[in-house]
Write a structure and sequence with these properties.
Protein name: Putative NarL family two-component response regulator
CATH architecture of the largest domain: 3-Layer(aba) Sandwich
Largest sheet: 6 strands, parallel
Organism: Ilumatobacter coccineus (strain NBRC 103263 / KCTC 29153 / YM16-304)
Strand order of the largest sheet: 2-1-3-4-5-6
CATH superfamily of the largest domain: Response regulator
Number of domains: 2
Distance between the termini: 35 Å
Shape: globular
Strand content: 5-15%
Pfam families: GerE, Response_reg
Order of helices and strands: EHEHEHEHEHEHHHHH
CATH class of the largest domain: Alpha Beta
Keywords: DNA-binding, Phosphoprotein, Transcription, Transcription regulation
GO molecular function, one term: DNA binding
Helix content: 40-55%
Length: about 210
Amino acid sequence: MIRVLIADDQDLVRAGFRMILDATDGIDVVGEADNGRDAVTKAQHLRPDVCLFDIRMPELDGLAATALIAGPDVAEPLNVVVITTFDLDEYVYGALQAGAIGFLLKNAAPELLVAAVRAAANGDSLISPEITTRLLDHVVAPNAPSSLSESPLTDRETEVVAAVARGLSNAEVATELHVSVSTVKAHIAAAMSKLDARNRVELVIWAYEHGLSG
């Protein structure tokens, strides 16, 4: 069972998320918060598998709250998916820098919300497709791809990262490369370590910079 905490200052939004997630097999909403400070307190107490955080909340915004429970200095970080009505690049990048593992707009389809929760629970990133495109356009310089000649990755790790950049899940990568899911996870972990990437999104950025996204 995937345990989820929802934090949003709008009652109707929280109710809508709860209705969608509670109606989904294998997902249980274990708590709600209407401000960022309460969200952090409940997250630290409940230790949910996934936290859904709005960005604009009173007392403590979603980016600051995310940093407190998922940031690089947190000993046992939680999985945070940031959900907002705002799709500005600085919010996306700020959320990822704060430690978020996923980023969705509030107008995303219910199926995408569920997929994001499941992905986050498995340690995978899921970002709305339109957000991914804008993020990459914002972060990746529009230059010719960098050479792979000095890449620290093995050929297999490069294959896995390229597949991740195409949006494949761990299970889909495993099927495509005829290996186990655990092997895929090991390659992803190794690649993240070698590239000093904190999440799959940063792997995707690296892949785009090196011409592996096609």
